[in-house]
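Colleagues,

Please find the record for the two-part complex below.
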Amino acid sequence: RKEVEQDPGPFNVPEGATVAFNCTYSNSASQSFFWYRQDCRKEPKLLMSVYSSGNEDGRFTAQLNRASQYISLLIRDSKLSDSATYLCVVNRDSWGKLQFGAGTQVVVTP
Amino acid sequence: EAEVAQSPRYKITEKSQAVAFWCDPISGHATLYWYRQILGQGPELLVQFQDESVVDDSQLPKDRFSAERLKGVDSTLKIQPAELGDSAMYLCASRTGMNTEAFFGQGTRLTVV
């Protein structure tokens, strides 16, 4: 079993719709969590950190469920520019090892 | 805005040749990572440095790959000899602390022919 698992998608989303997807992690000692966005053939860039209480940044909402060991990302009012691969990232130990999922592809269509 | 610098951006090499990549992290970032990303997959950690020390190289194919960060600043990743399966994007990232954002360079796209 992979340490960080994501549904690869693609999630085909009409413009203006809401899309949500999860990421599960296997190491219960994981300490911090992030969502990164990666455009085709570009480097990953931080979308948002994920806090225990859940957090929101504009149209993006992230949740953490430690009991079930998953994090989620919800995108409201999807824009064409939201089309990308969303990478789940888990800080799995005290040394700061960052473990990436394989990514979830989102395609927003007009 | 400070950024992670990587060079070269693109590299084409023949199999069995040696190849090297360079990374200059954001100033003050003690933690430096090298990742390999194959198209359609997530980045895979190759090596992690804390200052000049290696803290994780468990996934580094040590028979052909080496990495160093001699003065705790910039870093070099080397492959010798290169194999066809090494074709991938090599990403360098840095961060200040464990719960902070990791910043990525633009990567080096390696093609082994």
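The radius of gyration of chain B is 13 Å.

Comments are welcome before we finalize the supplementary table.
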